[in-house]
Amino acid sequence: MQNDHRMQGTHPGKASESKRSNYFEGRGKQPAQDSESHKKGRLDSQAILLLIVHTLFGSANALSGTFVGVYLWKAKNDYALIGWFTLATHLTMAITFWLAGKWVKEHNKMNCLRIGVAVSALFYMLVLWLGANSFHYFVWLGIVQGISAGLFWVAFNVVYFEVTDPDNRDRFNGSVGLLGSGAGIIAPWISGLLIVNLGDVAGYRLIFSISLGIFLLGVIISFFLKKRKVQGTYEWMFPIRSLRQAETPWKRVSLALVFQGVREGVFGFMIALLVYISTSSEASLGNFVLITSAVSLVSFWAAGRFIKPRFRNVSMFIGAAMVVAIIVPFFWKMSYSTLLIFGLGSALFFPMYSVPMVSAVFDLIGSTEESAKQREEYIVLRELALNVGRVCGVLLFIIVISWSKAPLVINILLLMIGSSTLFSWYFMKRQLSVLKS
């Protein structure tokens, strides 16, 4: 999900009344009715419904998505193949974001979100249909997954911006992480047990089928979200025009997002794969995700509750530094124990990094009436920057892993890619400091 677009010098908690009215206008609400609720940081019914849709989407992906890389690995033990699958996903996601920006800006953004969920269901239908031959079609599967993610997230992020404001954005982000962690506690653990007890064919078929059902439920729930108001015309070249401006915080913020994406692109699939390779057991991977998600649940709850705008800079630095430090045990020994240390450390500290990052970027979008009106273009800009980073990270992974698969080389690669969080904080720190003033 993860948006962030404000002008320098604007404090998110001190927006003028004209700016605040723009938030409510975009959300289709009555300012007098909802302003008090948001000053107190509460989430309204539309925000809660959006959380439910997000949780269902995340639960279905947690149930099966954790094991897609393992599924491909078992078909063909090839790091590079999984890297190419991931690369196809991120490239397609970036293109989909850019193209779908016009849809969510000028047409029905809720249909865009629903079709994104439906295409996710299609992805698992294809995996079920192809079975053991899936690895032959990894590029096409990556494209389908990229389309589903692009459609869902571009719509979700726009609606997220519209149903939140600076007073409750940290709480919403913390709730997203908390509920996502809750799904992560149960879903992968159940999946691992089913695969081990039923066998590969029946087990994977069952968990992919359950994911289909959850995605369909998510589509149904989404119809309870109000149709969002549309206004304006989509500007195709906005990301380039925006970054060409002489004085804009978006140059630094975009670089921060690129470095954030570098880590996400590789760690998103590599850690689960390393856990499976170390244990040769889907049940162990399920247990790993259960334990780390339980810690993450508490961490996201705390981050959403206690990280206020004035604490974002310090919080993001501590989180960024610690998620790098916990990679060091890999140099001692790559095992389930060191992977668990990494997983627990990430679960504990990553919310300190990600919650301020996400909230600050979305606050930047809403810093002025003009930027709020161009929220779709800014969200596309954000996602393009993230996916540039993801693509760069995965390309680096493919190049290195094609040259050597030695444990030391892999550990150095993970440390280099993991250190991108510090660069992300470096380019964000001025924007985070603006929020304190």
From TrEMBL:
Keyword Nuclease in annotation: no
Domain of life: Bacteria
Main location: membrane
Key words of the record: Membrane, Transmembrane, Transmembrane helix
InterPro entries: MFS (IPR011701), MFS_trans_sf (IPR036259), Sugar_transport-like (IPR052528)
Membrane-crossing segments per the record: 47-73, 79-100, 112-131, 137-160, 172-196, 202-225, 253-277, 283-302, 314-332, 338-364, 384-403, 409-428
SUPFAM superfamilies reported in the protein's UniProt record: MFS general substrate transporter
Basic and acidic residues: compositionally biased ranges: 14-28
Subcellular location(s) per record: Cell membrane
Ranges for region Disordered: 1-40
Membrane topology: Multi-pass membrane protein
Pfam families: MFS_1
Keyword Transmembrane carried by entry: yes
The protein's name in its UniProt record: MFS transporter
